[in-house]
Amino acid sequence: MTLFAALASIVFGAMGKETTRERWLYGVKVFAEFMVIGLALSWLLYFIP
Amino acid sequence: MGGLILVKTAHIEADEVEPTPGSAWLIGVAAWFVPGLGHGLLMKWPRALLMGGAVWLCFFIGLSMGGHMFDLNAPEGSSQILQVPPMIANLGTGALYIISWLLGHGFTDDPQQAARATYEYGNTFLLIAGLLNYLTMLDAFDIAAGRKS
After folding, report:
1. Model ipTM?
2. What integer pLDDT is reported at residue B107 of this predicted model?
């Protein structure tokens, strides 16, 4: 999941914004979103039989 | 009723739309066929390495995990039409898909391969590799057409 999030956020970040700084920030934000949502959904599904 | 009614008409001029240069289409095709080549041809090397590299890596990780790619040959008991959406996603990797298809690598319906713990992860990586390359292709096309820098 981490690898998947990293690869996807690299592409999203590279094409997302105008300046290099904005791209870095956007890439990191997308990566964090993938990880947080992935972990949250995993725990949610863990408790659902 | 000697009033004068003035009607003001607004003349809206349509924005001139510049035609897309032919080279942009060629760049788009090149970007689809070889992930990263589109940005490479545009001399956007960091983006070519990052975006193309991510697609290549995603594809080979998917294959090494034992992932399965889709074509129009449906397995028994499955409809052919269900093969089309994942096939379109897989096809996004361009030459990587075509070469694998020609070599028959990653297309076999092998129960042993499907039993691997990483099989579904591999499938996902292969699908995402194609979809990410579609995004990369559109980015290269937009740059070549002068719509973004």
Report:
1. 0.83
2. 85
